[in-house]
Amino acid sequence: MPVTGPFFKYITLMHSGNSPTQIKPASPTAVVREWAEMIKFEHSVFALPFALSGLILASPANSLPAAATIFFTILAFVGARSAAMTLNRVIDSRIDAANPRTKDRAIPAGRIKPGIAMIFAVVAFGVMLFAASKLPPICLQLSPIAVVWLSFYSFTKRFTWLCHLVLGIALGGAALGGWVAAGGTLGGAAPWLLALAVSTWVAGFDVIYACQDYKFDTAEKVFSIPARFGIGPGLLISRGLHVVTVAALIGLGLSLHLGLFYWLGFTAVAAMLTYEHSLVKADDLSKLNAAFFNVNGFVSIACFFAILIDHILKVH
Average per-residue pLDDT in the chain? Predict the structure, then answer.
């Protein structure tokens, strides 16, 4: 059915929450853009490379993962992340509506209806489960844990400042998912060192991100490390988490006897994390967006390509 037909017009009206006499149906491009913005699709660059890193590291030293394995790993990750972000937006819609920084997001602003978003989340989890069924059996067996954890995360800011670590563990689990997708077992230190590196890296930059909502979170009793301890101590905790990230990446390289390109990539990652913390100060958060988006995107991509090149050199 053409996207400009009656069905698409119905979806766009449901998406906007208005009747045909109130609004002209949005274009397909506008609808896609709205949904992509809601789930922050571009943020996949933060964690997808680490899921693929687990896939590469768990593959036999003399081969690369099959194309189908790569495809279904990516599909499972995108489905899981899309569902988790959508649930987060629905669950946090009242908080977002009260926060000046987030009040214009699609759900609190009324451009996407919560019911439609929940249907999307269910479908996205279905995509994840379908993709997991095409990977080794353990992937589907562990999927319920992923669904519960990803659904649970959004509630944690209501009762614990450890919410940043809960988010970190969720994305660290993506790295473990990539590992088992390649047929690897979770025995030994390596997969857990990778998961620890990802978990503390994500938790550390999420603490930095939460600094911009310090006043709102404090006033509204939303839990976060900056709201609990203050911006200055929160930034120190973030640095500590990233020290653990660096230590875990060192342990990963040593445990798997990774080569020169891995260590060059590791050096770049450590340098960028150091640079990230130089951008953000307790009395000056003006460069926070650069720290969050630019630096962290580089960190994940640099780490992935270092691992990929190191593995390719071993293959050939």
Answer: 88
Residue ranges of alpha helices (H) inside 60-213 are 67-91, 93-98, 114-133, 137-153, 163-181, 190-210
Nearest to 31, CA basis, from 61, 4, 6: 4
pTM over 0.90: no
Choose among 113, 110, 47: nearest CA to 84: 47
pLDDT digits (tens, 9 = 90+) for 86-102: 999 999 999 999 999 99
Which residue reads 């379908």 in tokens?
130
Q: Would the pLDDT of 23 be above 50?
A: no
Handedness of CA 279, 175, 46, 270 (dihedral sign): positive
Nearest to 89 by CA among 78, 111, 105: 105
Domains and CATH numbers, the chain: 45-315 (1.10.357.140)
Phi and psi angles of residue 89, each rounded to the nearest 5 degrees, phi first? -65, -40
